[in-house]
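Worked Example 4.2. Read the sequence first, then its structure tokens.
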Amino acid sequence: MLLLPLFMFFLFAFSKVFATLILIQKMEVASFYAARRWQLESHRNVAHESFDNGTLCPDIEQKVKEYLGYFDATTKSFLGIQTVSVCPVQRTQVWNVVTLTVFTNPIDLPTMKTGGYKFEVVKYVPNRDRPIAFVLPGLNAP
């Protein structure tokens, strides 16, 4: 009779660990999608930066949220998702840094009070420049 509550506790703890593993795997897949789409559809020209930040990045974030189950109440509560963000993407000279950040709900146990957890996946995406052939100075390239 006393083993049933102990069994239920371990079952609950195991399901939460399993949910965390699922969340991390889904974050890896979603961050790859976000990075690849940013690489292929973003612009290098400053004139198109408003499209990238105003339309493209929120659309990528929307698709990532859909994949992670942010809009499904059952999946959201099982995985403990609180917030999901991809935007803004950090631009540098060579790389674009796409960071997927997920905050989870704190563990709700009366004996253990903790804060929520923050999971981040960072992808470095190269700019979509055409490679330039390396030519030594003073040599005539054909």
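Now turn to a second chain, presented in exactly the same format:
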Amino acid sequence: MMNRNVSTLLFAVVALASTGRAETFSVNAWSKDLQSSLGTHPTAVDRLLDVNAIVKRTLVQEKSAPRAAMNEARALYGKGQFEQALAKYNEVPRGSDLWLEAVEEKGWAYHREKDFEKALAQTKTLLSNPFLSIVGSEPFFLQSLSQLKICDYKGILETHKLFKESQRQRLVELQGLSETGKSEALAKLIEKNDQFPLSFENVGESVKSMPRLFYKDLKFQQAVLELKMAKAAIPVLENAKLNKKQKSVLTRLQKIAADGQARAEARLKELALRENDQNFKMLQKLNLIEVETIQRIHADREMDRESFRKGQFAKAGDDQLVFPDDGRPWIDELDKYQVKVNSCPQNIRRRM
């Protein structure tokens, strides 16, 4: 049963994800150090103006136990060693910003093992309220496909309804982003964010309308970090006495300030196009599942009617009457459909 405080789970994950994190780079602190060093510590100024070195050092991929576990799990999954992969996925703690990815990939591992109950347990987590707007379209496909495997037709239709209700606005926003690269969320991110590398907890509400995991993309992060550094440093350097080398750095920063926004938008557009392509494929697959579901429901009903006409139906007790199912619920009927994993219902009938 879901805890009544599940709505706070997202914030718990965010808070935990910040613990044990490698030291971050603050643009504001860097610009203050730069200002205080000008005219007094020329060597320090040169070091602070080595933008390439700072960006490279800041955006280096952090080595951690959760990331190592994810890499091992993915390698094992690729080899078809699903049980071993699952053990590694389970090593990724809930506090890691890799946890949601681990849950999704774990769901596919269970699905490949034909353990559809456990696959659905993962998607129930992914599609719970705290994460529903940020997980993308693939968990819906995983849930729908797993439900098809166990012939949970009602569940399939509910999953598809949830997809349409929860993802419609996001799909529209991503479509617009893939065409222009412009987004109010991007403008707010550039204006407000000071800490790098970007992480789940400091990109805030922008995750809902931006490409999935955009904040982990190194090219996007580099464009935003350089732009932030340029905007912070230019006013400081323009009012200072600079040597030739420092003037060349100022010229470069002015160029970054001029085209940095466009670079960030271009990368965001590329990421949105990529996700749009994936969403289109997921929509096609969901549509195929829906068509298959409708055909199966129709076939089951036709088979039921034929069996009823021939008297070929499950034995009923002396105190029971058996009727063909026409799909319309009766007022005295409770829990009409029962689904067992790996067993599809056939000859569906009512007993009373």
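Notes for the reader: The chain is about 65% helix and 5% strand. The longest strand covers residues 322-324.
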